[in-house]
Amino acid sequence: MNRVKKSKLGARFLKFFSPTITPILPALWASATANYEFVQRLSLEDQARLRHLASTFLSRKTISGADGQTITELARVQIAAQACILILNLGIDYYDGWHEIILYPAQFSTEREYTDGAGVVHRTRSVLAGEAWLQGPVVLSYADVTDTEGAHNVVIHEFAHKIDMLNGGANGYPPLHKGLNREQWKQTFLATYLQFCEAVDKAEMLPRHHAQAYAALDAIPIDPYAAENPAEFFAVCSEVFFEAPEVLAQSFPAVFAQLALFYKQNPTTSS
């Protein structure tokens, strides 16, 4: 009898404190995801699972506008669909520990202050399309959220950082689930990252506006920004994994294989 009472109390507690999930209507979902190839290549069953996951995501996260940005239902679903493609087969718990997304109408500027080894304080200003804070919000430019050109995807990029941060600061080594070998992951990503950095360095050493420089940069298969550090390499590779999977599979097959195991998806074979 006590066990039954506890069970009923637990169920009532969960019902009271669990957020209400409002299903995304099919027409809104279709409109929001029509231009996302990574959604369209999914089976109908997987699209339905992604829509449910996005509905759950929106019940748990607050999306706030900044600098005059209005938050529409279309914008909310566009963000949710792109964010949830990464966790389609991982689960919503991968986005636990934070609750807010801040949306600007366009790219935004940030100021940073740091002290170097000599004790000198420096201030830097950057213009960003997106930013992910450790245990804090994801900040996005709506102009970039809706940009479907090329293999760039600011939402996938920043939410890959969020996954990377699950075991601390972003460093390109997210917590690995069963089926992945930590040493193999590190060796694969480190070796590919160093080769990639070498190719980018060689291209950037060539005289600007020189034909060879353009050819060298064109030969780099993914955004050269990935050479910034291992965290950016992981985030950019995640973008390409979903947006242009054939490019990543052909250029960095070992990295593609690790990401396919990690995300439990293979976008080159989805239907």
Structure commentary:
The protein has 271 residues and is of the alpha/beta class. Helix content is 50%, strand content 12%. It has twelve helices and six strands. The protein has helices spanning 2-17, 26-33, 37-40, 44-60, 73-84, 142-145, 154-164, 182-205, 211-218, 230-243, 245-251, 253-263; strands at 62-65, 100-104, 108-115, 121-128, 130-132, 138-141. A four-stranded mixed beta sheet has the order 1-2-6-5. A hairpin with a 5-residue loop joins strand 3 and strand 4 (121-128). Helix 2 (26-33) crosses helix 5 (73-84), helix 7 (154-164) crosses helix 10 and helix 8 (182-205) runs antiparallel to helix 9. The longest helix has 24 residues, at 182-205. It is globular. The termini are far apart.
Helix % is: 40-55%
Strand content: 5-15%
Q: Give the number of DSSP strands.
A: 6
Distance between the termini: 50 Å
Mean pLDDT: 89
* CA-atom Rg in angstroms: 21 Å
Q: How is the largest sheet built, in terms of strand order?
A: 1-2-6-5
Series of H and E elements: HHHHEHEEEEEHHHHHHH
The low-pLDDT segments are 1-6
Q: What structural class is derived from the secondary structure elements?
A: alpha/beta
Structure annotation, total helices: 12
